[in-house]
Specification:
ten-stranded antiparallel beta barrel; Lipocalin
Length: 152
């Protein structure tokens, strides 16, 4: 009996260590006029993040999507953002604070332009990001913004 319990505990612990992070998956920005998605996958001890950004068509034409990607080791080191596979001049320094929190410095041409603090809900279904832009926010200006991303 002791042997069976030891095996069950070992299998449970092994499964927990190999389980995917609650951050991984596809997320949709809540209250967005168009469907902005973010996909996080574990890659090389960190994350690969892919955003699908809607670009409205001219005069009611179809919406197309631009893809932005970034790979981070979650260690606070600079990670370039690629737009449609090409350098964009943007980068992020993403640091994992703990299992539920990240801290990110947003940069443009190597200069900090904002800070983002993100938290995943205990049930793993919502990411809350508090963004504080010094310049270049959503309207091109400084300011604060709170975003909610829902897991799909």
């Amino acid at each position: 009996m002791t042997r069976v319990l030891s095996l069950i505990i070992l299998v449970t612990l092994s499964s927990a260590s190999w389980a995917a992070s609650p951050w991984t998956g596809t997320w949709v920005l809540r209250d967005s006029a168009a469907r902005l998605t973010m996909t996080l996958v574990e890659a090389g001890g960190g994350w690969k993040v892919t955003w699908k950004i809607p670009v409205p068509g001219a005069k009611g034409g179809p919406v197309t999507y631009t893809t932005m990607t970034m790979e981070t080791k979650l260690d606070g080191k600079d990670a370039p953002n690629l737009v449609d596979g090409k350098p964009s001049g943007q980068s992020m320094e993403v640091r994992k604070v703990d299992d539920r929190h990240t801290y990110t410095v947003l940069k443009q041409q190597g200069k900090p332009v904002g800070i983002s603090k993100s938290e995943i809900s205990p049930d793993g279904k919502v990411i809350k990001s508090e963004n504080d832009y010094t310049v270049g926010g959503p309207n091109g200006q400084a300011g604060k913004q709170v975003q909610y991303w829902d897991k799909q």
